[in-house]
Amino acid sequence: MDRVKRPFVVRGGESAHYQPANHTGTRNRRLIGEETVGARMVEMVIGELDPGGEARRHAHPGIEQVCFMLEGRARVECDGREEEIGPGDACFSPPDTPHRFTVIGDRPVKVLVIYSPPYGEDAGRVRLAEAAVS
Asked: How far apart are CA 134 and CA 127, in angstroms?
């Protein structure tokens, strides 16, 4: 079987930023995914959010999401429950579960986000706030 040789190491500073849908004050960089290393079952993104930035309430049909805080503080909501998290804390959003992420305080946030299976910013794989709260 002839396989395409892909890198297995991704240098974070070499990944392009993008503004994810349904977010404000956010810059993401996809580190691990189909296009970077050929990953088909998992995706890893690093997000940087400005003070006041947020991921509005939404859900990912069939996709699990993990957030691991690297810097700053945020209020996370999942399925109607809220918690404050900071560096070293992680949160989990099960598939199809409404969740939200909001920066608190005057410092930016850096967060590592893992999706399984990959989300890929596919608009067809997200339910936005209006639909997510029903």
From this structure: 11
CATH code of the domain in which 116 resides: 2.60.120.10
Each residue's pLDDT tens digit, 6-57: 889 999 888 889 888 889 999 999 999 998 999 999 999 999 999 999 999 9
Task: State how many domains the chain has.
Answer: 1
Q: What is the pTM of this model?
A: 0.88
Q: Is 56 inside any structural domain? A: yes
2 found inside a domain: no
Tell me the torsion sign for CA atoms 10, 67, 98, 75. negative
Straight-line distance from the first to the last Cα atom of the chain, in angstroms, rounded to the nearest whole number: 47
Determine the Cα–Cα distance for residues 58 and 132; give it in Å rounded to an integer. 5
Q: Which residue has the tokens 């997510």?
A: 132
pLDDT 10s digits, 57-92: 999 999 999 999 999 999 999 999 999 999 999 999
Coil, helix or strand at residue 9 = coil
